[in-house]
Amino acid sequence: MGLLSDPNRRRALINLLTRLNAPICAVCYIAGVAWFMGLAFEPFTLRTYMSENAMGSTMVEERFPAGERALATGREFAAHKKRAGGMPVDWLVKTMQSRGLEVFTQKFSRTLPFPDENKERYMVKGTNVYGILRAPRAPRTEALVLTAPCSPGDDNNQAVGLLLGLAQYFRNQIYWAKDIIFLVNEHDLIGMQAWLEGYHHTNTTGIDWSPLQGRGGSIQAALSLELSSDIITSLDLVLEGLNGQLPNLDLANLFYAFCQKIGVTCTIQGKPCCPDHDADGNEASQRPTMGGPRAFFTCHHCWQVRTNDFSFINQILKLNNLLERLHQSYFFYLMPSLSHFVSIGYYMPAFGLLAVILLLRALDLWVQLATPPVRTEDGIADLEQSSPEVLSVLTPLVISHLTGAALYFFPIQFQATAVEHFPVSESEAVVLTAIAIYTAGLALPHNTHRLLSGEGVEQDWRVLKLIAVLYMAVLLGCTALINFSLGFILALTLVPMAAFITPHRPKVLSAFIMVILSPACTLLFLVFFFQDLQEIPVSFEDGWMLFLSVISQGILDHSLYGSLVYPLIALMVYPCWLLFWNILFWK
Protein backbone atom coordinates (compact mmCIF):
# COMPACT_ATOMS: atom_id res chain seq x y z
CA MET A 1 0.00 0.00 0.00
CA GLY A 2 2.91 2.33 0.70
CA LEU A 3 4.02 2.06 -2.91
CA LEU A 4 0.68 3.41 -4.16
CA SER A 5 0.08 5.97 -1.40
CA ASP A 6 3.50 7.61 -1.74
CA PRO A 7 3.27 10.09 -4.69
CA ASN A 8 6.96 9.81 -5.53
CA ARG A 9 6.95 6.00 -5.58
CA ARG A 10 3.68 5.95 -7.52
CA ARG A 11 5.13 8.32 -10.09
CA ALA A 12 8.28 6.18 -10.36
CA LEU A 13 6.18 3.04 -10.89
CA ILE A 14 4.11 4.72 -13.59
CA ASN A 15 7.25 5.98 -15.32
CA LEU A 16 8.69 2.46 -15.26
CA LEU A 17 5.52 0.93 -16.71
CA THR A 18 5.31 3.52 -19.46
CA ARG A 19 9.01 3.35 -20.32
CA LEU A 20 8.98 -0.46 -20.57
CA ASN A 21 5.41 -0.70 -21.83
CA ALA A 22 6.11 -2.46 -25.13
CA PRO A 23 8.52 -5.10 -23.72
CA ILE A 24 6.18 -5.86 -20.80
CA CYS A 25 3.24 -6.27 -23.20
CA ALA A 26 5.25 -8.66 -25.39
CA VAL A 27 6.28 -10.74 -22.36
CA CYS A 28 2.67 -10.88 -21.11
CA TYR A 29 1.42 -12.09 -24.50
CA ILE A 30 4.04 -14.84 -24.73
CA ALA A 31 3.39 -15.83 -21.11
CA GLY A 32 -0.38 -15.98 -21.72
CA VAL A 33 0.02 -18.26 -24.73
CA ALA A 34 2.53 -20.45 -22.89
CA TRP A 35 0.21 -20.69 -19.87
CA PHE A 36 -2.68 -21.82 -22.08
CA MET A 37 -0.53 -24.46 -23.76
CA GLY A 38 0.57 -25.64 -20.33
CA LEU A 39 -3.03 -26.34 -19.32
CA ALA A 40 -2.70 -29.74 -20.97
CA PHE A 41 -0.14 -30.87 -18.40
CA GLU A 42 0.28 -31.16 -14.66
CA PRO A 43 0.13 -29.35 -12.29
CA PHE A 44 -2.63 -27.40 -14.08
CA THR A 45 -4.74 -30.50 -14.75
CA LEU A 46 -6.39 -32.16 -11.78
CA ARG A 47 -7.81 -35.65 -11.56
CA THR A 48 -11.59 -35.78 -11.55
CA TYR A 49 -13.35 -36.74 -8.33
CA MET A 50 -16.91 -36.96 -7.06
CA SER A 51 -17.90 -34.04 -4.84
CA GLU A 52 -21.53 -35.02 -4.19
CA ASN A 53 -21.71 -37.93 -1.75
CA ALA A 54 -25.32 -38.68 -2.67
CA MET A 55 -24.13 -39.81 -6.11
CA GLY A 56 -21.83 -42.52 -4.83
CA SER A 57 -21.64 -45.69 -6.91
CA THR A 58 -22.95 -47.95 -4.13
CA MET A 59 -26.23 -46.16 -3.53
CA VAL A 60 -28.36 -47.46 -6.40
CA GLU A 61 -29.39 -50.71 -7.97
CA GLU A 62 -27.35 -51.02 -11.17
CA ARG A 63 -29.41 -53.59 -13.01
CA PHE A 64 -31.77 -53.21 -15.93
CA PRO A 65 -33.10 -56.62 -17.03
CA ALA A 66 -35.40 -55.36 -19.78
CA GLY A 67 -32.80 -54.65 -22.48
CA GLU A 68 -34.27 -57.06 -25.03
CA ARG A 69 -37.77 -55.70 -24.41
CA ALA A 70 -36.52 -52.13 -24.93
CA LEU A 71 -34.91 -53.17 -28.20
CA ALA A 72 -38.17 -54.74 -29.40
CA THR A 73 -40.05 -51.56 -28.44
CA GLY A 74 -37.56 -49.57 -30.49
CA ARG A 75 -38.26 -51.71 -33.55
CA GLU A 76 -41.99 -51.28 -33.01
CA PHE A 77 -41.54 -47.52 -32.76
CA ALA A 78 -39.54 -47.52 -36.01
CA ALA A 79 -42.32 -49.37 -37.82
CA HIS A 80 -45.00 -46.94 -36.63
CA LYS A 81 -42.79 -43.95 -37.45
CA LYS A 82 -42.30 -45.21 -40.98
CA ARG A 83 -46.03 -45.83 -41.38
CA ALA A 84 -46.93 -42.36 -40.06
CA GLY A 85 -44.25 -40.57 -42.07
CA GLY A 86 -43.02 -38.87 -38.93
CA MET A 87 -43.42 -39.15 -35.18
CA PRO A 88 -46.26 -41.58 -34.31
CA VAL A 89 -47.97 -39.38 -31.72
CA ASP A 90 -51.01 -41.58 -31.09
CA TRP A 91 -48.89 -44.72 -30.66
CA LEU A 92 -46.55 -42.95 -28.23
CA VAL A 93 -49.48 -41.65 -26.18
CA LYS A 94 -51.03 -45.13 -25.91
CA THR A 95 -47.69 -46.78 -25.13
CA MET A 96 -46.82 -44.31 -22.38
CA GLN A 97 -50.31 -44.62 -20.89
CA SER A 98 -49.91 -48.38 -20.83
CA ARG A 99 -46.74 -47.84 -18.77
CA GLY A 100 -48.79 -46.01 -16.13
CA LEU A 101 -47.61 -42.48 -16.96
CA GLU A 102 -49.57 -39.26 -17.03
CA VAL A 103 -49.29 -38.47 -20.75
CA PHE A 104 -49.57 -35.06 -22.42
CA THR A 105 -48.77 -33.57 -25.83
CA GLN A 106 -47.59 -30.17 -26.95
CA LYS A 107 -47.91 -28.77 -30.47
CA PHE A 108 -45.46 -26.18 -31.73
CA SER A 109 -44.57 -24.35 -34.93
CA ARG A 110 -41.86 -22.01 -36.07
CA THR A 111 -41.23 -20.14 -39.30
CA LEU A 112 -37.52 -19.75 -39.78
CA PRO A 113 -36.19 -16.29 -40.74
CA PHE A 114 -34.78 -17.94 -43.87
CA PRO A 115 -34.61 -21.55 -45.12
CA ASP A 116 -32.19 -23.84 -43.32
CA GLU A 117 -30.42 -25.51 -46.25
CA ASN A 118 -28.49 -27.88 -43.99
CA LYS A 119 -31.69 -29.55 -42.75
CA GLU A 120 -33.90 -28.48 -45.65
CA ARG A 121 -36.63 -26.85 -43.62
CA TYR A 122 -38.42 -23.50 -43.43
CA MET A 123 -41.89 -24.05 -41.94
CA VAL A 124 -41.44 -26.28 -38.89
CA LYS A 125 -44.45 -27.92 -37.23
CA GLY A 126 -44.34 -30.76 -34.75
CA THR A 127 -45.60 -32.36 -31.56
CA ASN A 128 -43.84 -33.26 -28.35
CA VAL A 129 -45.09 -36.21 -26.32
CA TYR A 130 -44.18 -36.56 -22.66
CA GLY A 131 -45.23 -38.69 -19.74
CA ILE A 132 -44.76 -37.99 -16.03
CA LEU A 133 -44.04 -40.63 -13.42
CA ARG A 134 -45.06 -39.02 -10.15
CA ALA A 135 -42.92 -39.51 -7.05
CA PRO A 136 -45.03 -41.71 -4.72
CA ARG A 137 -43.37 -40.67 -1.47
CA ALA A 138 -42.30 -37.07 -1.98
CA PRO A 139 -43.92 -33.61 -2.24
CA ARG A 140 -43.32 -33.61 -6.03
CA THR A 141 -41.43 -30.32 -6.04
CA GLU A 142 -38.44 -31.64 -8.03
CA ALA A 143 -38.10 -33.56 -11.29
CA LEU A 144 -35.63 -35.39 -13.51
CA VAL A 145 -35.96 -35.42 -17.30
CA LEU A 146 -35.14 -38.30 -19.67
CA THR A 147 -35.47 -37.28 -23.32
CA ALA A 148 -34.97 -39.00 -26.67
CA PRO A 149 -35.34 -36.95 -29.87
CA CYS A 150 -37.41 -38.44 -32.69
CA SER A 151 -34.87 -38.16 -35.50
CA PRO A 152 -35.66 -38.55 -39.21
CA GLY A 153 -35.09 -41.88 -40.90
CA ASP A 154 -33.85 -44.78 -38.80
CA ASP A 155 -31.76 -42.67 -36.41
CA ASN A 156 -32.30 -42.89 -32.66
CA ASN A 157 -35.14 -45.43 -32.74
CA GLN A 158 -33.25 -47.51 -30.17
CA ALA A 159 -33.12 -44.53 -27.80
CA VAL A 160 -36.92 -44.14 -27.89
CA GLY A 161 -37.30 -47.88 -27.20
CA LEU A 162 -34.89 -47.58 -24.27
CA LEU A 163 -36.79 -44.55 -22.95
CA LEU A 164 -40.09 -46.48 -22.97
CA GLY A 165 -38.43 -49.54 -21.46
CA LEU A 166 -37.05 -47.44 -18.63
CA ALA A 167 -40.49 -45.92 -18.05
CA GLN A 168 -41.98 -49.38 -17.55
CA TYR A 169 -39.12 -50.47 -15.31
CA PHE A 170 -39.19 -47.31 -13.19
CA ARG A 171 -42.96 -47.60 -12.78
CA ASN A 172 -42.47 -50.73 -10.70
CA GLN A 173 -40.07 -49.04 -8.25
CA ILE A 174 -41.32 -47.33 -5.10
CA TYR A 175 -38.34 -45.31 -3.90
CA TRP A 176 -38.61 -42.31 -6.19
CA ALA A 177 -38.06 -38.96 -4.46
CA LYS A 178 -38.54 -36.90 -7.64
CA ASP A 179 -40.93 -36.82 -10.56
CA ILE A 180 -39.44 -38.39 -13.69
CA ILE A 181 -40.44 -36.90 -17.03
CA PHE A 182 -40.05 -39.06 -20.17
CA LEU A 183 -40.00 -36.79 -23.23
CA VAL A 184 -39.93 -37.65 -26.93
CA ASN A 185 -39.39 -34.39 -28.82
CA GLU A 186 -39.75 -33.76 -32.54
CA HIS A 187 -37.50 -31.62 -34.74
CA ASP A 188 -34.53 -31.97 -32.43
CA LEU A 189 -33.54 -28.67 -30.75
CA ILE A 190 -36.59 -26.70 -31.87
CA GLY A 191 -38.93 -29.18 -30.21
CA MET A 192 -36.79 -29.23 -27.08
CA GLN A 193 -36.74 -25.43 -26.92
CA ALA A 194 -40.53 -25.28 -27.35
CA TRP A 195 -41.04 -27.78 -24.52
CA LEU A 196 -38.65 -25.99 -22.16
CA GLU A 197 -40.26 -22.62 -22.86
CA GLY A 198 -43.69 -24.11 -22.23
CA TYR A 199 -42.50 -25.81 -19.04
CA HIS A 200 -41.06 -22.58 -17.63
CA HIS A 201 -43.76 -20.26 -19.04
CA THR A 202 -41.32 -18.18 -21.10
CA ASN A 203 -41.02 -17.33 -24.78
CA THR A 204 -37.70 -15.86 -25.86
CA THR A 205 -37.29 -17.32 -29.35
CA GLY A 206 -40.63 -16.67 -31.05
CA ILE A 207 -41.70 -20.31 -31.23
CA ASP A 208 -45.49 -20.79 -31.21
CA TRP A 209 -46.38 -23.56 -28.77
CA SER A 210 -49.44 -24.75 -26.98
CA PRO A 211 -49.43 -24.50 -23.16
CA LEU A 212 -48.40 -27.63 -21.29
CA GLN A 213 -51.30 -29.38 -19.58
CA GLY A 214 -49.09 -31.28 -17.15
CA ARG A 215 -45.98 -30.27 -15.24
CA GLY A 216 -43.67 -31.85 -12.72
CA GLY A 217 -41.43 -30.22 -10.16
CA SER A 218 -38.42 -27.99 -10.70
CA ILE A 219 -36.00 -29.73 -13.09
CA GLN A 220 -32.86 -30.77 -11.20
CA ALA A 221 -31.04 -32.63 -13.99
CA ALA A 222 -31.66 -34.05 -17.46
CA LEU A 223 -30.26 -36.81 -19.63
CA SER A 224 -30.59 -36.91 -23.43
CA LEU A 225 -30.36 -40.35 -25.05
CA GLU A 226 -29.01 -40.87 -28.55
CA LEU A 227 -28.35 -44.40 -29.79
CA SER A 228 -27.29 -45.20 -33.33
CA SER A 229 -27.06 -48.99 -33.20
CA ASP A 230 -28.32 -52.11 -31.42
CA ILE A 231 -24.75 -52.97 -30.44
CA ILE A 232 -22.92 -50.69 -28.02
CA THR A 233 -19.13 -50.63 -27.91
CA SER A 234 -18.45 -47.13 -26.54
CA LEU A 235 -20.08 -44.10 -24.99
CA ASP A 236 -19.33 -40.51 -25.94
CA LEU A 237 -19.79 -37.48 -23.71
CA VAL A 238 -20.79 -34.11 -25.20
CA LEU A 239 -20.85 -31.35 -22.59
CA GLU A 240 -21.33 -28.01 -24.31
CA GLY A 241 -24.70 -26.33 -23.98
CA LEU A 242 -26.09 -23.07 -25.28
CA ASN A 243 -23.63 -20.13 -25.22
CA GLY A 244 -20.84 -22.25 -23.79
CA GLN A 245 -22.71 -23.28 -20.64
CA LEU A 246 -21.52 -26.46 -18.97
CA PRO A 247 -23.24 -28.92 -16.62
CA ASN A 248 -22.00 -29.51 -13.12
CA LEU A 249 -18.74 -31.45 -13.28
CA ASP A 250 -20.16 -34.18 -11.04
CA LEU A 251 -22.43 -35.31 -13.91
CA ALA A 252 -19.41 -35.87 -16.13
CA ASN A 253 -17.57 -37.58 -13.26
CA LEU A 254 -20.56 -39.87 -12.71
CA PHE A 255 -20.56 -40.86 -16.38
CA TYR A 256 -16.83 -41.60 -16.41
CA ALA A 257 -16.82 -43.49 -13.10
CA PHE A 258 -19.58 -45.83 -14.21
CA CYS A 259 -17.97 -46.46 -17.61
CA GLN A 260 -14.83 -47.53 -15.78
CA LYS A 261 -16.81 -49.75 -13.44
CA ILE A 262 -18.61 -51.72 -16.16
CA GLY A 263 -15.63 -51.73 -18.54
CA VAL A 264 -17.21 -49.75 -21.39
CA THR A 265 -14.97 -47.61 -23.59
CA CYS A 266 -15.74 -43.92 -23.14
CA THR A 267 -14.76 -40.93 -25.28
CA ILE A 268 -15.13 -37.17 -25.08
CA GLN A 269 -16.05 -35.17 -28.19
CA GLY A 270 -15.62 -38.36 -30.19
CA LYS A 271 -11.94 -38.63 -29.21
CA PRO A 272 -10.65 -41.59 -27.17
CA CYS A 273 -8.66 -40.73 -24.09
CA CYS A 274 -6.43 -42.79 -21.86
CA PRO A 275 -7.59 -42.58 -18.24
CA ASP A 276 -4.09 -42.75 -16.78
CA HIS A 277 -2.39 -40.46 -19.25
CA ASP A 278 -1.93 -36.73 -19.10
CA ALA A 279 -4.15 -34.61 -21.31
CA ASP A 280 -2.54 -33.85 -24.62
CA GLY A 281 -2.30 -30.54 -26.42
CA ASN A 282 -4.71 -31.48 -29.17
CA GLU A 283 -7.50 -32.21 -26.69
CA ALA A 284 -6.92 -28.93 -24.85
CA SER A 285 -6.75 -26.88 -28.03
CA GLN A 286 -9.87 -28.58 -29.35
CA ARG A 287 -11.88 -27.15 -26.50
CA PRO A 288 -12.32 -23.61 -27.88
CA THR A 289 -13.38 -24.94 -31.28
CA MET A 290 -16.33 -26.85 -29.84
CA GLY A 291 -18.40 -23.78 -28.95
CA GLY A 292 -21.81 -23.37 -30.20
CA PRO A 293 -25.33 -24.16 -29.15
CA ARG A 294 -25.43 -27.97 -29.55
CA ALA A 295 -27.83 -28.90 -26.77
CA PHE A 296 -30.03 -27.43 -24.09
CA PHE A 297 -29.65 -30.33 -21.68
CA THR A 298 -26.56 -32.24 -20.73
CA CYS A 299 -26.22 -34.65 -23.65
CA HIS A 300 -24.65 -38.10 -23.28
CA HIS A 301 -24.37 -39.30 -26.89
CA CYS A 302 -24.25 -43.11 -26.86
CA TRP A 303 -22.77 -45.12 -29.72
CA GLN A 304 -23.14 -48.83 -30.38
CA VAL A 305 -23.73 -50.38 -26.95
CA ARG A 306 -24.66 -54.03 -26.44
CA THR A 307 -28.37 -54.32 -25.58
CA ASN A 308 -27.80 -56.24 -22.38
CA ASP A 309 -25.46 -53.44 -21.25
CA PHE A 310 -28.34 -50.96 -21.00
CA SER A 311 -27.74 -51.00 -17.24
CA PHE A 312 -25.49 -47.97 -17.59
CA ILE A 313 -28.59 -45.81 -17.95
CA ASN A 314 -29.49 -46.63 -14.36
CA GLN A 315 -26.93 -44.04 -13.34
CA ILE A 316 -29.85 -41.62 -13.60
CA LEU A 317 -31.11 -43.31 -10.43
CA LYS A 318 -28.28 -41.69 -8.50
CA LEU A 319 -29.78 -38.29 -9.24
CA ASN A 320 -32.84 -39.46 -7.31
CA ASN A 321 -30.73 -39.38 -4.13
CA LEU A 322 -29.88 -35.69 -4.42
CA LEU A 323 -31.18 -33.61 -1.54
CA GLU A 324 -30.43 -30.31 -3.30
CA ARG A 325 -29.27 -28.99 -6.64
CA LEU A 326 -25.81 -29.98 -7.81
CA HIS A 327 -23.53 -27.27 -6.51
CA GLN A 328 -20.51 -28.77 -4.76
CA SER A 329 -18.47 -29.36 -7.92
CA TYR A 330 -17.43 -26.98 -10.69
CA PHE A 331 -19.59 -25.23 -13.28
CA PHE A 332 -16.62 -23.46 -14.88
CA TYR A 333 -13.93 -25.83 -16.12
CA LEU A 334 -12.12 -27.21 -19.14
CA MET A 335 -12.06 -30.96 -19.71
CA PRO A 336 -9.08 -32.06 -21.84
CA SER A 337 -9.86 -35.70 -20.96
CA LEU A 338 -12.44 -37.63 -18.97
CA SER A 339 -9.97 -38.31 -16.19
CA HIS A 340 -8.62 -34.76 -15.85
CA PHE A 341 -10.08 -31.26 -15.69
CA VAL A 342 -8.79 -27.69 -15.44
CA SER A 343 -10.55 -25.44 -12.95
CA ILE A 344 -11.31 -21.77 -13.50
CA GLY A 345 -8.54 -20.80 -11.10
CA TYR A 346 -5.97 -22.35 -13.42
CA TYR A 347 -7.19 -21.32 -16.87
CA MET A 348 -8.26 -17.70 -16.22
CA PRO A 349 -4.67 -16.46 -15.61
CA ALA A 350 -3.94 -17.32 -19.27
CA PHE A 351 -6.62 -14.85 -20.29
CA GLY A 352 -5.61 -12.40 -17.57
CA LEU A 353 -2.08 -12.15 -18.97
CA LEU A 354 -3.56 -11.12 -22.33
CA ALA A 355 -6.06 -8.71 -20.80
CA VAL A 356 -3.41 -6.92 -18.74
CA ILE A 357 -1.79 -5.83 -22.01
CA LEU A 358 -4.86 -3.69 -22.74
CA LEU A 359 -4.68 -2.14 -19.27
CA LEU A 360 -0.97 -1.36 -19.69
CA ARG A 361 -1.64 0.32 -23.03
CA ALA A 362 -4.50 2.28 -21.48
CA LEU A 363 -2.15 3.45 -18.70
CA ASP A 364 0.42 4.55 -21.28
CA LEU A 365 -2.19 6.50 -23.24
CA TRP A 366 -3.54 8.10 -20.07
CA VAL A 367 -0.05 9.28 -19.11
CA GLN A 368 0.47 10.74 -22.58
CA LEU A 369 -2.84 12.58 -22.40
CA ALA A 370 -2.10 13.87 -18.91
CA THR A 371 1.31 15.23 -19.92
CA PRO A 372 1.28 19.06 -19.80
CA PRO A 373 1.13 20.69 -23.25
CA VAL A 374 4.38 21.76 -24.88
CA ARG A 375 4.98 25.51 -24.59
CA THR A 376 6.42 27.60 -27.37
CA GLU A 377 9.28 30.10 -27.01
CA ASP A 378 6.88 32.90 -26.06
CA GLY A 379 5.37 30.74 -23.26
CA ILE A 380 2.04 29.98 -24.97
CA ALA A 381 0.81 26.38 -24.83
CA ASP A 382 0.25 24.53 -28.10
CA LEU A 383 -3.52 24.16 -27.87
CA GLU A 384 -3.64 22.34 -31.20
CA GLN A 385 -1.90 19.40 -29.57
CA SER A 386 -3.67 19.54 -26.20
CA SER A 387 -7.38 20.01 -26.81
CA PRO A 388 -9.09 17.00 -28.38
CA GLU A 389 -12.42 17.70 -30.06
CA VAL A 390 -15.47 15.84 -28.82
CA LEU A 391 -16.84 15.51 -32.34
CA SER A 392 -13.65 13.87 -33.58
CA VAL A 393 -13.92 11.15 -30.94
CA LEU A 394 -17.69 10.74 -30.84
CA THR A 395 -18.22 10.37 -34.59
CA PRO A 396 -16.19 7.14 -35.03
CA LEU A 397 -17.89 5.64 -31.98
CA VAL A 398 -21.37 6.33 -33.35
CA ILE A 399 -20.64 5.26 -36.93
CA SER A 400 -18.86 2.06 -35.86
CA HIS A 401 -21.82 0.94 -33.78
CA LEU A 402 -24.30 1.95 -36.47
CA THR A 403 -22.34 -0.28 -38.86
CA GLY A 404 -22.53 -3.10 -36.32
CA ALA A 405 -26.28 -2.57 -35.97
CA ALA A 406 -26.61 -2.77 -39.77
CA LEU A 407 -24.63 -6.02 -39.74
CA TYR A 408 -27.01 -7.40 -37.13
CA PHE A 409 -30.38 -6.29 -38.59
CA PHE A 410 -30.00 -5.87 -42.36
CA PRO A 411 -29.04 -9.41 -43.54
CA ILE A 412 -32.47 -10.79 -42.61
CA GLN A 413 -34.44 -7.61 -43.28
CA PHE A 414 -33.16 -7.21 -46.85
CA GLN A 415 -33.01 -10.85 -47.94
CA ALA A 416 -36.15 -10.44 -50.09
CA THR A 417 -34.63 -7.47 -51.92
CA ALA A 418 -31.40 -9.36 -52.52
CA VAL A 419 -33.25 -12.41 -53.88
CA GLU A 420 -35.28 -10.17 -56.19
CA HIS A 421 -32.25 -8.49 -57.77
CA PHE A 422 -29.67 -11.30 -57.68
CA PRO A 423 -29.83 -15.00 -58.65
CA VAL A 424 -29.30 -16.33 -55.12
CA SER A 425 -31.37 -18.28 -52.58
CA GLU A 426 -32.68 -16.75 -49.35
CA SER A 427 -29.93 -18.23 -47.19
CA GLU A 428 -27.24 -17.16 -49.67
CA ALA A 429 -28.75 -13.67 -49.73
CA VAL A 430 -28.51 -13.41 -45.93
CA VAL A 431 -24.88 -14.53 -45.82
CA LEU A 432 -23.75 -12.41 -48.78
CA THR A 433 -25.51 -9.35 -47.35
CA ALA A 434 -23.70 -9.84 -44.06
CA ILE A 435 -20.35 -10.15 -45.85
CA ALA A 436 -21.10 -7.05 -47.94
CA ILE A 437 -21.90 -4.95 -44.87
CA TYR A 438 -18.84 -6.29 -43.07
CA THR A 439 -16.62 -5.36 -46.02
CA ALA A 440 -18.25 -1.95 -46.44
CA GLY A 441 -17.13 -1.10 -42.93
CA LEU A 442 -13.57 -0.86 -44.23
CA ALA A 443 -14.54 2.47 -45.84
CA LEU A 444 -15.38 3.86 -42.40
CA PRO A 445 -12.31 6.14 -41.96
CA HIS A 446 -13.08 8.11 -45.13
CA ASN A 447 -16.77 8.43 -44.29
CA THR A 448 -15.95 9.49 -40.74
CA HIS A 449 -13.63 12.31 -41.71
CA ARG A 450 -16.10 13.67 -44.23
CA LEU A 451 -18.48 14.27 -41.32
CA LEU A 452 -15.92 16.24 -39.32
CA SER A 453 -15.90 20.01 -39.53
CA GLY A 454 -12.13 20.09 -39.48
CA GLU A 455 -9.08 17.88 -39.24
CA GLY A 456 -8.48 16.04 -35.97
CA VAL A 457 -5.59 16.95 -33.69
CA GLU A 458 -2.90 14.57 -32.49
CA GLN A 459 -4.56 14.00 -29.12
CA ASP A 460 -7.87 12.94 -30.69
CA TRP A 461 -6.73 9.49 -31.78
CA ARG A 462 -5.15 8.89 -28.37
CA VAL A 463 -8.46 9.63 -26.66
CA LEU A 464 -10.27 7.36 -29.12
CA LYS A 465 -7.75 4.57 -28.63
CA LEU A 466 -7.95 4.91 -24.84
CA ILE A 467 -11.73 4.45 -25.06
CA ALA A 468 -11.38 1.57 -27.54
CA VAL A 469 -8.76 -0.25 -25.44
CA LEU A 470 -10.82 -0.03 -22.26
CA TYR A 471 -13.94 -1.03 -24.23
CA MET A 472 -12.16 -4.12 -25.57
CA ALA A 473 -10.81 -5.03 -22.11
CA VAL A 474 -14.31 -4.99 -20.59
CA LEU A 475 -15.83 -6.79 -23.59
CA LEU A 476 -13.28 -9.60 -23.64
CA GLY A 477 -13.33 -9.93 -19.87
CA CYS A 478 -17.10 -10.40 -19.73
CA THR A 479 -16.97 -12.84 -22.65
CA ALA A 480 -14.23 -14.94 -21.05
CA LEU A 481 -16.17 -15.21 -17.79
CA ILE A 482 -19.19 -16.63 -19.62
CA ASN A 483 -17.37 -18.58 -22.33
CA PHE A 484 -13.63 -18.84 -21.79
CA SER A 485 -12.97 -20.54 -25.11
CA LEU A 486 -14.56 -17.77 -27.16
CA GLY A 487 -13.04 -15.01 -25.02
CA PHE A 488 -9.53 -16.45 -25.25
CA ILE A 489 -9.66 -16.90 -29.03
CA LEU A 490 -10.82 -13.31 -29.49
CA ALA A 491 -8.16 -12.04 -27.10
CA LEU A 492 -5.46 -14.06 -28.87
CA THR A 493 -6.16 -12.26 -32.16
CA LEU A 494 -7.47 -8.83 -31.11
CA VAL A 495 -5.18 -7.88 -28.22
CA PRO A 496 -1.89 -7.58 -30.19
CA MET A 497 -3.69 -5.61 -32.89
CA ALA A 498 -5.28 -3.27 -30.34
CA ALA A 499 -2.05 -2.77 -28.39
CA PHE A 500 0.24 -1.58 -31.14
CA ILE A 501 -1.97 0.08 -33.79
CA THR A 502 -1.32 3.83 -34.24
CA PRO A 503 -1.73 6.24 -37.16
CA HIS A 504 2.06 6.29 -37.52
CA ARG A 505 2.43 2.62 -38.50
CA PRO A 506 2.96 1.65 -42.16
CA LYS A 507 -0.56 1.76 -43.56
CA VAL A 508 -0.51 -1.11 -46.06
CA LEU A 509 1.25 -3.65 -43.84
CA SER A 510 -0.78 -2.69 -40.76
CA ALA A 511 -4.05 -2.86 -42.70
CA PHE A 512 -3.16 -6.32 -43.98
CA ILE A 513 -2.37 -7.53 -40.44
CA MET A 514 -5.58 -6.04 -39.09
CA VAL A 515 -7.66 -7.80 -41.74
CA ILE A 516 -5.93 -11.11 -41.01
CA LEU A 517 -6.66 -10.67 -37.29
CA SER A 518 -10.24 -9.49 -37.83
CA PRO A 519 -13.19 -11.56 -36.48
CA ALA A 520 -14.21 -12.80 -39.95
CA CYS A 521 -10.74 -14.07 -40.88
CA THR A 522 -10.36 -15.63 -37.43
CA LEU A 523 -13.56 -17.57 -38.05
CA LEU A 524 -12.30 -18.66 -41.46
CA PHE A 525 -9.04 -19.95 -39.98
CA LEU A 526 -10.93 -21.80 -37.24
CA VAL A 527 -13.02 -23.60 -39.86
CA PHE A 528 -9.89 -25.08 -41.42
CA PHE A 529 -8.31 -25.70 -38.01
CA PHE A 530 -11.37 -27.59 -36.78
CA GLN A 531 -11.40 -29.75 -39.89
CA ASP A 532 -7.75 -30.62 -39.30
CA LEU A 533 -8.52 -31.56 -35.69
CA GLN A 534 -11.26 -33.86 -36.96
CA GLU A 535 -8.71 -35.32 -39.37
CA ILE A 536 -10.92 -34.27 -42.31
CA PRO A 537 -8.82 -31.69 -44.19
CA VAL A 538 -10.66 -29.74 -46.87
CA SER A 539 -9.68 -27.70 -49.88
CA PHE A 540 -9.97 -23.91 -49.83
CA GLU A 541 -13.16 -24.03 -51.89
CA ASP A 542 -14.80 -26.52 -49.52
CA GLY A 543 -13.52 -24.58 -46.54
CA TRP A 544 -15.04 -21.38 -47.93
CA MET A 545 -18.41 -23.09 -48.33
CA LEU A 546 -18.16 -24.33 -44.73
CA PHE A 547 -17.34 -20.77 -43.68
CA LEU A 548 -20.50 -19.46 -45.36
CA SER A 549 -22.49 -22.28 -43.76
CA VAL A 550 -21.13 -21.38 -40.31
CA ILE A 551 -22.25 -17.76 -40.77
CA SER A 552 -25.71 -18.88 -41.89
CA GLN A 553 -26.00 -21.30 -38.98
CA GLY A 554 -24.86 -18.66 -36.51
CA ILE A 555 -27.63 -16.29 -37.60
CA LEU A 556 -30.17 -19.12 -37.48
CA ASP A 557 -29.02 -20.29 -34.04
CA HIS A 558 -29.50 -16.79 -32.69
CA SER A 559 -33.02 -16.54 -34.13
CA LEU A 560 -34.09 -20.05 -33.12
CA TYR A 561 -32.34 -20.73 -29.83
CA GLY A 562 -31.06 -17.41 -28.52
CA SER A 563 -27.37 -18.03 -29.22
CA LEU A 564 -25.37 -14.91 -28.35
CA VAL A 565 -22.37 -15.44 -30.62
CA TYR A 566 -23.70 -13.57 -33.66
CA PRO A 567 -25.02 -10.50 -31.79
CA LEU A 568 -21.80 -10.40 -29.76
CA ILE A 569 -19.69 -10.27 -32.92
CA ALA A 570 -21.99 -7.93 -34.85
CA LEU A 571 -22.93 -5.44 -32.13
CA MET A 572 -19.76 -5.33 -30.02
CA VAL A 573 -16.64 -7.07 -31.33
CA TYR A 574 -16.88 -5.80 -34.92
CA PRO A 575 -17.59 -2.14 -33.94
CA CYS A 576 -14.68 -2.30 -31.50
CA TRP A 577 -12.43 -3.60 -34.27
CA LEU A 578 -13.64 -0.77 -36.52
CA LEU A 579 -12.47 1.79 -33.96
CA PHE A 580 -8.90 0.55 -34.31
CA TRP A 581 -9.29 0.46 -38.10
CA ASN A 582 -10.29 4.13 -37.88
CA ILE A 583 -7.28 4.91 -35.71
CA LEU A 584 -4.91 3.36 -38.25
CA PHE A 585 -6.17 5.71 -40.99
CA TRP A 586 -6.44 8.75 -38.74
CA LYS A 587 -5.52 12.04 -40.40
UniProtKB/TrEMBL annotation:
Coiled coil: none
Superkingdom in the source lineage: Eukaryota
Transmembrane parts of this sequence: 20-41, 344-363, 390-410, 468-501, 508-530, 564-586
Membrane topology type: Multi-pass membrane protein
Keywords: Disulfide bond, Endoplasmic reticulum, Glycoprotein, GPI-anchor biosynthesis, Membrane, Transmembrane, Transmembrane helix
Keyword Repeat (UniProt): no
Pathway(s): Glycolipid biosynthesis; glycosylphosphatidylinositol-anchor biosynthesis
Location(s) in or outside the cell: Endoplasmic reticulum membrane
GO terms under cellular component: GPI-anchor transamidase complex
Biological process according to GO: attachment of GPI anchor to protein; GPI anchor biosynthetic process
Pfam families in the record: Gaa1
Subunit structure and binding partners: Heteropentamer. Part of the GPI-anchor transamidase complex, consisting of PIGK, PIGT, PIGS, PIGU and GAA1. Interacts with PIGK.
Job description of the protein: Component of the glycosylphosphatidylinositol-anchor (GPI-anchor) transamidase (GPI-T) complex that catalyzes the formation of the linkage between a proprotein and a GPI-anchor and participates in GPI anchored protein biosynthesis. Binds GPI-anchor.
UniProt-recorded name of the protein: GPI-anchor transamidase component GPAA1
